[in-house]
Design brief:
alpha/beta, 339 residues, 6-stranded parallel sheet, Zn_alcohol_dh, Rossmann fold, ADH_Zn_CS, Quinone Oxidoreductase, Chain A, domain 1, zinc, 7-stranded mixed sheet, 10 helices, Threonine dehydrogenase, 2 domains
């Protein structure tokens, strides 16, 4: 089979590797599509050491495929040709430690100790492959968006119009939370955000606080200042200036869920957090419930999240695909077609 192998910074190669041997409790999945994630881009540009990826590893962890071989001890719930999402965090006995080397960019992936709704999730054939491959990032965004229990009628601001920010907004809208605004500095990305049903704000062209007041109205904080009437902020940007801005303008008892991976320390003023009883929490990964929620949204056509798929490359073009994803010029989600 063809596999994408990591050798070092900016050095990935498509090579022939032996087809995995299916154990008694294992399942072999033929990958149909795989997505390039921000983590994959980090591995490609900065090296795999920080991501527990070693030279010689098969990389990729966002994937959808079809079951082509089943070990004799696997439950009959899993059937041949079933279309499935493979959970990279549980696909291997090594677990989360090697999730970033889960063979997503290989023609086949071996799912060890396969169990339905644990490391294999059924995907309806009616869901287009370009949408089904988004289950993993959608689950990340959903976990972050719902980590602090937003309710229908609340006003939510998502910072960052990348894949995870768009996924967070799409999941909120699919659950009936319609007052969602995506903040970014790229008008092209914001056009994509609007196609998902979100309000948009370009913080390069418009003051963030005043822009949100214009869209959602205002409240008076304990210092007598008019601040945006926003209940929840979801940080998928990782921009220190935005984080500081949110803390400074947060209304009393509002919340902030941080999905973004910050690359540097950020100095913040705890006084505003204290005075506003502002709640901040981090969000990492996803749960079984997030995955099933996302699959339900796709099955019931509650989201058109596949609007964010901007490029599709064949496996032999994966080096070019990584360059496009890295440059991020009119590119959001870059997909590899393994058929």
């Amino acid at each position: 089979m063809k596999s994408t192998i990591y050798y070092g910074k900016e050095d990935i190669r498509v090579e022939e590797r032996p087809l995995p041997v299916v154990g008694r409790a294992d399942v072999l999945v033929k990958n149909l599509r795989a997505g390039i994630c921000g983590t994959d881009i980090g591995i490609y540009n900065f090296g795999g050491e920080l991501f527990n990826v070693a030279s010689g590893d098969e990389i990729g962890h966002e994937m959808v495929g079809e079951v082509v071989e089943i070990g004799p001890d696997v439950s009959p719930e899993i059937t041949l040709w079933m279309r499935v999402f493979v959970n990279p965090c549980t696909a291997k006995r090594s677990g989360l430690a090697k999730a970033n080397a889960a063979s997503g960019f290989s023609e086949y992936v071996l799912v060890e100790d396969a169990k339905l709704n644990y490391n294999i999730y059924e995907i309806a054939p009616s869901i287009p492959a370009e949408a089904a491959v988004l289950v993993e990032p959608l689950s990340v965004g959903t976990h972050g968006a719902f980590h602090l229990q937003p309710q229908v009628g609340e006003k939510v601001v998502v910072l960052g119009g990348g894949t995870i920010g768009m996924s967070a907004a799409a999941s909120l809208i699919a659950e009936g939370i319609k007052q969602v605004c995506i903040v970014d500095i790229d008008d092209w990305r914001l056009e994509k955000a609007a196609s998902l049903g979100a309000l948009t704000l370009n913080s390069k062209n418009e003051d963030l606080a005043q822009g949100l007041i214009n869209r959602f109205g205002s409240q008076t904080n304990l210092l007598g200042m008019q601040v945006p009437d926003v209940d929840l902020y979801v940080d998928a940007a990782g921009a220190p200036a935005l984080l500081k801005g949110v803390i400074a303008m947060a209304k009393p008892k509002s919340r902030l869920s941080i999905i973004a991976t910050y690359k540097q320390e950020v100095a913040i003023h705890p006084a505003m957090i204290m005075m506003n009883e502002f709640r901040m929490e981090g969000s990492c990964g996803y749960t079984h419930e997030n995955i099933t929620q996302v699959i339900s949204h796709l099955t019931e056509q509650k989201t058109n999240i596949d609007e964010i798929v901007t490029h599709v490359f064949k496996l032999d073009q994966i080096d070019e695909a990584f360059k496009v994803a890295t440059q991020a010029k009119e590119a959001i989600k870059v997909i590899i077609d393994l058929t």
